[in-house]
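Why predict the complex rather than its parts? Because the way molecules touch one another can change local conformation, and only a joint prediction can capture that. The input here totals 681 residues.
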Amino acid sequence: MRRVAIGLCLVVAMLLGATVPPAWAQGDPIKIGVIQPLSGPVAASGNYIRMGAEIARDWVNARGGVLGRPVQLLIEDNKSDPKEAATAAEKLIVRDKVPVIVGAWGSSMTLAAMPKLEEYGVPMIVETSSAATITKRGNPWVFRISPPSEMEAVGLEKYMKDLGIKQADFLAVNTDWGRGSVTAFGDLLKRSGSTVGTVEFMEQAATDMNAQITKVKAGSADTLFLTTSVEQITLVLKQAQEQRLSRKVITTGGSSSPSQLIKQAGPAAEGSMHILFFLPWFPDAMPDGKLAKAFVDEWTKRGHPFEGLTEGFRGHDGVMTAVEGLKGAGKPDPKAVRDALWNVSLMGVNGPIKFEKDGPAGKESGQSKPSIFIVQIKDGKIALPAFAAKK
Amino acid sequence: MDQLLQHLLNGLLLGSTYSLLGIGLTLVFGLMNVVNFAHGEFYTLGAYGTFAALVGASVNFFLAIPLAIAGGALVGAVCERLLLRPLRGASIDTTMLVMIGLWIALQNGELLAWGGVAKSVPTPFSTAPVVLGPVSVSRLRIFVFVVSVLLIVGAHLLLTRTRLGRAMRATFQDRETAALMGVSIERIHTVTFAFGAAMAAAGGALLGPVFLLYPSMGDLAAQKAFSVVILGGLGNFVGAALGGVLLGVAEELGAGYVSSGYRDAVGFVIIVLMLLVRPSGLFARAERVG
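Output of the joint prediction:
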């Protein structure tokens, strides 16, 4: 009888143990700061990245957290505004004392936050920004997992013959990202024997791009490189259709969310090509097909919109990189995390993440070498362009 | 030449919407002496109102727009009753601060209600453009242009030709005398503010489907509305109507022939020049006509 009672007690204890969440050794969660545009003209992207970051957090915590403690995300809104990005970085560092930050989407926002990193000595994983200057300024607290525009251009180089571009126009957002991208892809065109036609810019919040389109239309180029957020890409494609502009459109920067374009721009998006860093339609084509598939499944299970995946993975990869840095550091200390980031090597949804030195000697920033893909909208669906599929 | 024609057409279409935005703002300022910083939020409200009616309640597109305008007028009337009525007689600075507060509150309310991700409004118009010789224009934009012009003309007639319009102008010229003549002062204040809000909401309801909807969309609209009002002369109805078209065409030509990176700057350069030469506005008269 007594034995049975002890046995029952053990069973009850086991059951309790199974249902109670893992007891954290030190209790306090480890904070990771996230700065994203959650409102303002480019809010869609920032919100998707937040969703991806939350998936990474939940996955890490389900596996027992990091350094025996749970991960907590402190997510700040930079309102699509560089000034707010700097304020958000300062708030996370000074008030919340985060050992590492992931941010801040747009290049201008990242550049505005960077002096704060150096001032207080806290590392930031840059998950989206494309401007070359970010890793060239000699800020040793910056670790970028997204490709700078130059790297994107190199990624496109192998397709230049198939694309058959003779002359290309540029329409880009008037920010560090847009201007940097015009330089990078302009260089690519010159290297490949093509010429650069009209170069036009638009303000980040602008909604009427008819003037720029009219001007582009007056030229004789065959291709239009479009660099901006998905919101403006939608408007440009629609307005280009209204003005009967016939150009092969290639978007750069990976923030074009082709599924959203199909939904919101409809037939105006037909035929457009998009440089991307994640192919949620073909997860098996990713370097780690199993991880990519798991991410897409989790995203869908949470009811997040499918069109957000091409941005959402950045949040996952950013937080995972930060977690690896914390693991390597052995303590949530910004300087130790910075030193540890140089040695991380992990597999993200995009592919392998590993930092190499970039920028002026002695003050290098970290730059990973992400995978780059190109897709095309064909018959209202996403497809690999014929030339990319065969390679 | 073809390019110039297309630029002029673009400018005219864009300018007509600037006029619509400017008129509501100039009316509220000219008649009530209130600088309505929340003007852009009524624009946003109109846009989301159309979206809600169309997608939420599956109302017909052509019915959704008047519903959204009515909604904007209603919210405007409520704001006037709750915020401006207690401040009657307060200085212009005080009401300005209250309006800035309303702006922030409304914008964040919209963010809370709709989230930050942009939405697009489905329309019954075909996406194939109308081609007129060398230029082309979308059907939706023609619809927006026609309705804007009708609204502007209608608003002008209401102010100059109806009893209500006369009562409005009388009230703001001389409150006491108007009251003695049997005009209900409090009602006129509410109606005027609601009218200004309705004009902004109309702008949003019409332009929302042309562009995309997001909570901070009103900021750009308000910025353009203020430019138009300064250009046309504060409180000047005709000035706002013409100033809007002028600003639209100037931006378009500036972007087309100078530099698209400085598109917004072109508008402001004109405003600065105008303030230097004619500080009271291009179309200012000795007396405000409202």
